[in-house]
């Protein structure tokens, strides 16, 4: 008598349809092209008004200042595509910059020691956020807002109102923030390398695409057997690591550090990500768009300085860009849903 072995039911797969994926890719390319176009127009108009804006030093300053923000935006993208957010990255940068600066002051510690310490601190902060959000189920907004204030308080306690001067920081570390390779500063090279590596991972590996699946439909991702908690924890851990690296680069770039030097940067990071086409509701966006968003926001700040406009307007413009980007995402989402619904009815 032959035994009949019952096969387990196949697990559903999370995969966007070809038409839906194509529409989303088209929208993303349009958004990124729009940011690039806005950058070109902004630079062209400013150069006409003040030709010195495009001087070699001016361009270098823009890319140097954008590098750290772009690095944070890449880490934030990993978190946002999973339908979460990290508001503590600015505080992590400040904590790392001061602690690492205090540790290396008056010593001959090299770049590797500084980077390792900064990354370790950032990873610890990211791990706490990730565990509370993924395994404890606490809303990301509550967790990261809480850790933002905890880290700020810890930073001020450690600093005791003191500051670190560039004269105390080893020259090897300062050269990382101000040196170059074949005429190209190290900071943009580091940011571009990280951006390309993370972008390639998200695009080419199944585990990378799972971040988008979680953001698109957590329930479908759960049914497909995707380890949601582990992926969300990984996203926060990566964001913390990049924030730690950014804090070390902040020290290398500026040398002089006070307590909490990056206060308010968490909003700039979120703005860069959303303006760059990463949907705040998750599941859509690229690290390339986020980096372009960081470059646009940094360029706006430089333009206002060159044109001698009140710095207040930078915050107002960033806020306006954020509102426009979120509104555009909502309109695009509704449009995509309408198009896909009509397509399903037609082929149903």
Automatic annotation (TrEMBL):
> What InterPro entries has UniProt attached to this entry?
ABC_transp_permease
What GO annotations for molecular function exist for this entry? transmembrane transporter activity
| Annotated keywords | Cell inner membrane, Cell membrane, Membrane, Transmembrane, Transmembrane helix, Transport
- Membrane-spanning segments: 33-50, 62-81, 111-135, 184-202, 232-252, 264-284, 291-310, 316-337
Q: Does the keyword Cell membrane apply?
A: yes
> What is the topology of this protein in the membrane according to its UniProt annotation?
Multi-pass membrane protein
Tell me where in or outside the cell this protein is found.
Cell membrane
Gene Ontology cellular-component terms for this entry are:
plasma membrane
Physiological role = Part of the ABC transporter complex LsrABCD involved in autoinducer 2 (AI-2) import. Probably responsible for the translocation of the substrate across the membrane.
Assembly information from the UniProt record: The complex is composed of two ATP-binding proteins (LsrA), two transmembrane proteins (LsrC and LsrD) and a solute-binding protein (LsrB).
The record's listing under PANTHER family reads:
ABC TRANSPORTER PERMEASE PROTEIN YPHD-RELATED-RELATED, AUTOINDUCER 2 IMPORT SYSTEM PERMEASE PROTEIN LSRC
Which named protein is this? Autoinducer 2 import system permease protein LsrC
The species this protein belongs to is: Thermomonospora cellulosilytica
């Amino acid at each position: 008598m032959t035994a009949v072995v019952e096969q387990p039911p196949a697990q559903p797969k999370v995969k966007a349809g070809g038409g839906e994926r194509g529409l989303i890719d088209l929208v993303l390319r349009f958004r990124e092209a729009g940011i690039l176009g806005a950058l070109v127009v902004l630079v062209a108009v400013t150069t006409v008004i003040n030709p010195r804006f495009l001087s070699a030093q001016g361009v270098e300053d823009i890319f140097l200042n954008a590098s750290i923000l772009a690095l944070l935006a890449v880490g934030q993208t990993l978190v946002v595509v999973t339908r979460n957010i990290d508001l503590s990255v600015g505080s992590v940068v400040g904590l790392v910059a001061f602690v690492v600066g205090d540790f290396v002051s008056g010593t001959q510690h090299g770049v590797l020691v500084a980077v390792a310490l900064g990354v370790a601190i950032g990873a610890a902060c990211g791990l706490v956020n990730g565990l509370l959000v993924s395994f404890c189920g606490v809303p990301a907004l509550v967790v990261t807002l809480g850790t933002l204030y905890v880290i700020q308080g810890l930073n001020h306690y450690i600093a005791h109102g003191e500051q670190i001067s560039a004269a105390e920081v080893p020259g090897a570390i300062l050269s990382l923030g101000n040196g170059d390779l074949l005429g190209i500063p190290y900071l943009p090279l580091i940011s571009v390398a990280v951006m390309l590596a993370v972008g390639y991972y998200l695009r080419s590996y199944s585990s990378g695409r799972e971040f988008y699946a979680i953001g698109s439909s957590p329930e479908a991702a759960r049914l497909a057997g995707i380890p949601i908690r582990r992926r969300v924890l990984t996203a926060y851990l990566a964001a913390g690591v990049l924030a730690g690296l950014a804090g070390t680069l902040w020290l290398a770039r500026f040398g002089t550090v006070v307590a909490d030097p990056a206060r308010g940067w968490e909003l700039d990071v979120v703005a860069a990500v959303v303006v760059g086409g990463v949907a705040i509701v998750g599941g859509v966006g690229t690290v390339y768009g986020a980096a372009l968003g960081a470059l646009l926001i940094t360029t706006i700040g430089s333009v206002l300085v060159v044109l001698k406009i009140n710095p207040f307007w930078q915050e107002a413009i960033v806020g306006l860009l954020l509102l426009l980007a979120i509104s555009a995402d909502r309109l695009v989402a509704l449009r995509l849903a309408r198009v896909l619904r009509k397509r399903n009815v037609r082929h149903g």
